[in-house]
Amino acid sequence: MRPFLSSIAIPLVFAAAAAAQDRAAEVQTAFVRAQHLKHGINASEWFAQAQDYSAARTDRYTDAGDIALMAKLGFDHVRLSVDAEALGAALYGYGTPTADFLARLDRAVDTMLGDGLAVVIDLHPSENFKQQLRNGGDSVDRLAMLWRQLAAHYANRDPERVFFEVMNEPEVSDPYRWAGIQARVAAAIREAAPKHTIIAAGAMWSDVWDLLALEPLADGDVIYNFHFYEPHAFTHQGAVWGEPWWSYTHAIPYPAAESSMAELLKEVPDAVGRYQLENYWLNQWDARHIRALIDEAAEWGRANHVPLICDEFGVYREHADPDSRMNWLRDVRSALEADGIGWAMWDYRGGFGVVRKQDGQPAQVDDAVVKALGLR
Questions:
Q1: Is the dihedral of CA 313, 80, 304, 204 positive or negative?
Q2: Average pLDDT, the chain
């Protein structure tokens, strides 16, 4: 006997099938558009991560010549970080508004598009903004409203080449809370810009393990991103933020060499720091180790049938051995490409940069970094 389907059940079955078909089409769109994000660069400390967003500063920090150079070097997209509070001030007039902030941001986006670059508009808030998001419902309302307005503003730009990244490194320790926040923000973006692709991230620092814990959104037109700075003992040597002992380290080799690591351990004054640095040495960090970790991200993408991008990776350059830095950049970039994952190096002219530049002066390209990235 055939199973009986009621007059109510039959429409529901067809609706579910249609919804599944629609989502499959959305996922296919995301996969196709991810091809525009194969090898990118982060435009940092320009419209985010700064104290001064005046025209006097932003106009000289990164200019049209820099954008043209990004395209000339072979990058295909730029991840453009935007401070949430400065953006909110420009859109709504709260806080300390900066005159023509949004007009200057438009000029940057349109110049990139004009030079053939895709653009990831990355909401890159301060610690204060993220702290509020962790603790209050009103902050989630403000975030959704901010994204609705921002997405509407750029909805008329080419959806093939303009992408909306929900938030950089949310630092929300509760992954369930972040899942709810991200779903709500994605819905606000989709309402305002129905044709554009969204970029989503895990709850804390957007590390590989944050990605692995993520449940994909119901929206199919989404690319999922992660950041890769492993091992931090190498990539953040000499940094004065993060772990206190990083500031004591310099010239750490990659791959680790026994002949030099024993002496480098003596530079770290505290036992915990020495223990962590010794773990870097003994854990045999090399191309094989890095590839195994990135393979985990790639497998998550395959299992969930979604496209991936690694939109941050890099080495703090001021205290790194140049050859070791190039070895690491090459190994990470090669592992990502072997798994078919697009990437964006951190960053253009900051502490991890591909160029050195004084404000208002032409950029000096680090040819070794360009070579390590496999670019021309």
A1: positive
A2: 93
- Distance from the first to the final alpha carbon of the chain: 68
Residue recorded with tokens 């002496």 = 263
* DSSP, res 310: E
- Give the Cα separation of 142 and 167 in Å (integer): 13
Distance CA 28, CA 267 (A): 51
Domain ranges of the chain: 17-242+287-372
Give the CA count within 13 Å in the CB-facing half-sphere of 122.
Answer: 27
Listed in sequence order, the residues at least 6 apart from 131 whose beta carbon sits closer than 8 Å to its beta carbon are none
Length of the chain: 376
* Range 17-242+287-372 classified under CATH 3.20.20.80: yes
Q: For the stretch 207-236, what's the b/e string if a residue is b when 16 or more beta carbons lie within 10 angstroms of its beta carbon? A: bbebbeebebbebbbbbbbbbbbbbebbbb
Q: For residue 9, what pLDDT is reported?
A: 60
The tokens describing 135, both together, are: 């603790």
Cα 260 to Cα 234: distance, rounded to the nearest angstrom: 14
pLDDT at 8: 58
Each residue of 81-129: pLDDT tens digit?
A: 999 999 999 988 765 557 699 999 999 999 999 999 999 999 999 999 9
Residue 159 C-alpha from the chain's centroid? 19
Cα–Cα distance, 60 to 79 (Å, whole number): 19
Residue 205 CB-density burial (10 A; 0-12 exposed, 13-18 middle, 19+ buried)? middle
Instruction: Please tell me the number of Cα atoms within 13 Å of 316 on its side-chain side.
Output: 22
